[in-house]
Structures are given as C-alpha cells and as structure tokens.
Amino acid sequence: MKLNLTIVAVTARIKARSAVMRGAYLQRLDLAAARKPGTERLGCANVAHAFAGLPANDKFKVVAERSLNIGIVSAYNDVLSAHTPLQRYPDLIKTEARRLGATAQVAGSVPAMCDGVTQGTAGMELSLFSRDVIAMATAVSLSHDVFDAALMLGVCDKIVPGLLIGALHFGHLPTVFVPAGPMTSGLSNNDKAKVREQAAQGLVGRAELLAAESAAYHGPGTCTFYGTANSNQMLLEAMGLHVPGTAFVNPGAAMRDELTREAVRTALAITNPARSVAGHVQSSQFAPIGRVVDERSIVNAMVALLATGGSTNHLIHWVAVARAAGMVIDWDDFSDLSKVVPLLARVYPNGSADVNQFQAAGGPGFVIRELLDAGLMHEDVLTVRSGGLRDYTCVPVQDGSTLRWQDPGASGDESVLRTVARPFSASGGLKLLQGKLGRSVIKVSAVPVDRHVIEAPCRVFDSQEALHVAFQAGELDRDVVCVVRWQGPQANGMPELHKLTPPLAVLQGKGFKVALVTDGRMSGASGKVPAAIHVSPEAAAGGPLAKVHDGDVIRLDADAGTLDVLVDDAEWAARDLPAMPEALVAANGLGMGRELFAGMRRSALAAEQGACSWF
C-alpha cells in the first residue's frame, strides 16, 4: 500500500529538521557499537568487580567463554499493581539466558511512582520529573558498560518513557521492553466514574467510594482504562520494541511467562554479529535501539496514539523520547497527522470498554494491521523482530511450550474496534489549539460533539484545591471556563489534575457549558469534559494565562482549533503580566521531597519541548 502523503510529508520534515542532531547521535552510536566487548575492553579489576557476584558457572561463561550478557533494568515495586508481577522476571530471564548459553544480570532498578496514589497530593508534583529521574537511573544502570543487550522491565505512566529515554542514551544496545499486562476486569470504568461523581456531590460517603475504587483496582496488573500506562504499551508495539502482541496479556495468563522468555530469545537474536559466539543463539540482524527508534518509528507511534485515542501525556513524553534519539517533533506534527488518521478504537475514557475487551476484539495487532494496510504507518522499519513491523499485526498463541503468532481476523467487537473503512471518526483523537492564550492541546475523542465549542465567562484559580472549594460552595453552578494556572513544569512540576474531572463532570451533567483551561496536565483517563491542557508558554514562564481575569470570556473551539480570550486587543496588551505569587513559589518548593527537584523546575523546557530537564 502506498504511504499516505501526509505521513510522508510529516516524516520528511522531522527528518530534515533533525538532520544535524540525529547525525551526531548516530555517529556516537556507531562508535560505541564498534568497541570491543566489556570483558576485553575494561581493566581486569573492572571486570572482576562486574562479575564477582555471579554464580561460578555464569562467571566462567561471561569471562572465559565471552558469552553474551544481558543487562536487566527493572522498575519493580509492589506499590504499583502493574509492576508487582515483575518481581519474578529476573529469575525467569536468567534461567532462559543460561539455557541459551548466555548470562543476564540485574543492572539496576529505577524508581516507579503510581499517579493513582499521588493524584491530588503534593507527591504528584514529583511525577513528571520522575520520568527524567528514571532515565538517569537507567543510564546509571547501563553505565557499567558490560552488556551486549538490555531488557527494560516497566509498564506505567512515566516509567516506560523514562526507561526509553535512558536506553536511547545507550543507543548501541539492542533493547527489548518487557511488560506485565493488565489486571483482569473489575468494576467497570463507567460505574467507577459514576460513584466518583456521586461522591463529589456528597451523595455517597467515603466507605462507598472506597468500595467502588477497590472493586475497580483489585489485583496485579495495569489499570484497565486506556490511560498513559496502556497507551505506553500500544506505542511500544507500534515501534517494534516488544515481543509482538505481548502488551495486553494478563499477568496470570499461562502465556505470560513464555512471552517473557521470548523477550530473552529476541534480545539475543539482535545482538551485534561481531559478538556471535559458537553454541549461542546467533544474531539474525543487528538492531540497536538507537537505530530502531528513527523518524519513521516515531511517526508510527504518533499514528498509533491518534488511532486509538491514547493519552495526551504522550504529547509531552514522546517529544522527549524523540529528543533522546536526536530528533525534534512538535504539536504541529501531531495535529497534521490527526487530520488523516482515523479513530479505530473506543476504550475508556473514549468509550465504555476496558483494555481487556480491546485485546479480545483484536488489540494492537488489529490496529497495526489496519494502519499498515491503509498506508498510514511505515512498514519499512527496523524492529526487534526479523519480520519487521508486519510481525506486530499478529497475536500470540501458545501450543504447549511453543509460541506461534496468527492474524487477529475480523474485529471481535465493532463497538470497541473498527476497520479503517468504518472508523469511529475520520480523524484522530487529538487537536492543537492556538490563540491569544498560547498553544494547547485537547483530547476530542472522548468529548461529545456538542461540547467541542465552549464560550463562557471564566473563573481563575491558582490551584486545584481552590477550584474544589468553589465547587463545594456552589459558585460554579453556571456556564463557566475554569482556568487553573501556575501548573506548568517550571511552576510546580506540572502535576496531573485528574481530581478535577468529577466536579467538572457534575457541572456538565447539570447542563452547564463547562471547560477547563490549564498549563497543567490531565490524566490519560480524563476526557469527557473539554479541556485545553499543556497551555504553553506556561504562566510561570510569562505565558498569557497569567493575564487572565475573573469574568473574561474565553472561547475554546476544538473544531476551528482556537483558544482565545475575548478581550479587546488594546486592553489585553495593556494588562500587566504578573509573576507567580511568592506564596505559591514557597509552597510548591517545600515538603514531600520537592526541594530536591528545584533544579529540574528551573531548567525544565516547555511542555511542547517535552518538559525535559536534561536537554
């Protein structure tokens, strides 16, 4: 199938604008790949230290036989339900590596925080920058520099982008990502949302709310809505960084362990051929991660995000991922792709189904097959599998101890998953907004069509807590655009404002025209209330949100792609641009470890530049 012209054009301009930076990146990658193995290159004391803790047989293999050595970077902890299953993975990996004549070591662990635990608390202000901490921890782990390949064990919101950014700084290493899968379905996401809205109105108490939340989040595995964590997994499939079809297999499924062993086999099969050792799995192709992740792979990830109505957080995270591989993408790229990429999936919050239903209907394999066949993804890309991206159109099936892959066939449920010929929408789920208030994005896939245009007087808040107080006092029972500012990367680390969804949804349910405008983030699970988010430049960096007054009429037009304050130009120009209040500056920097992130807040780039603290 001939590639769509917009796909071609966006890919070409990314390649052109990134030429110098990408060229320098690839030069560093090639120099690192051309070196001798660590056991030959490092001093004897270095080598002795690196393998002193290994069992004798493993030590003999890696030092004397010069066997291939896999570095494992794990985000395991048992606070995150999605990461609880990862505790067993290193032993599985090491056993499989030994069986294949190789070795594996846990190179290091990275922090992993659960946004579901920290939502609405001071701890949430560490969340976005935890991505960069994870990237740095990944780099520290791999800096021992004795590995021929790497496995990244992680699933959730900031963890996968952080692992990916860190791994790309070791772009010469073949790298495979190893997920754990979603938890089984519990209380439906729609029913959970209803109880949250009832709690916001005081109709149910804490006991009822906790019972509902516990029925929804009830066991090991990723949360079942299509938020940032599950969007991560879809994008990794689209980039060819997983074992195909491994994203949404439940942790308790019989196939899960075999998919993890397959990740070991996959990693060993793509190592540098110069390191091939007799008696070991032989390399079928050299696929270092820095070559796998190129401008075509990045565009494929963006297309997959749009086609499935994925998390808005990736308009920040994948910008940072691209930068880590020497490429520059922006929101214009997402916007242009969104115009030609159809919406193929309806998964909560863009529908009522959860990710288990999405998987049962055909999952990532169905989506990637449809997009490839329609010329909406690049097929000529390098992946961690020798069959390329076409391998990712299949779903895994286990016969005894053997895995095989088969076509997912027709959609198992057309209310969840559709073909390109019969999409839910002809365009993708995200829209760029521009106007007097700056540049912003909105996730339209979950917003009713009659809510795409909101024009109303605004109420300005300097914190999400202040909005909750106003809601409880009945001050927002009207058509209103809620402006929540001082929420960007430089102000307070750009926390998600997911706790605002229930009160705003209640107001919308009463028939009021309601919207949110903020320089902060919303959760990947938010959607049905129109929200212009990631407004850039942020208020703390001199952005126009700082000039907005209570009562100003704001127009959010997702159809026209505009975000404006309807104030006379002369009056708008004459208004002072206030600095962030000193009380907020002090409050945002103290407690819950926020002091340690002061340097990150000072150096953070804008949201559209990935909010990177390291670039």
Report strand %. 5-15%
CA-based shape: globular
Largest sheet: 8 strands, mixed
If helices are DSSP runs of H or I spanning 4 or more residues, what is the number of helices?
A: 25
Q: Give the overall average pLDDT.
A: 94
State the end-to-end CA separation.
38 Å
Oligomerization: single chain
Q: Give the low-pLDDT segments.
A: none
Radius of gyration: 24 Å
Question: Please, could you describe this protein's structure?
Answer:
The chain has helices at residues 5-17, 19-33, 38-41, 44-51, 56-64, 89-99, 115-118, 127-142, 159-168, 189-200, 206-216, 228-238, 255-268, 289-292, 295-308, 314-324, 331-340, 355-361, 363-373, 464-472, 489-492, 501-509, 569-574, 582-588, 598-603, and strands at 69-74, 103-109, 149-153, 175-178, 395-399, 402-406, 430-435, 438-443, 453-461, 480-484, 514-518, 531-536, 553-557, 562-565. The protein has 615 residues and is α/β, with parallel strands linked by helices. The chain folds into three domains: 5-34 and 67-184 and 219-406, no CATH class; 193-217, no CATH class; 431-609, Glucose Oxidase, domain 1 (3-Layer(bba) Sandwich). The strands form three sheets. It has an eight-stranded mixed β-sheet. The protein has a four-stranded parallel β-sheet with strand order 2-1-3-4, with helices on both faces. α1 (5-17) runs antiparallel to α17. The longest helix has 16 residues, at 127-142.
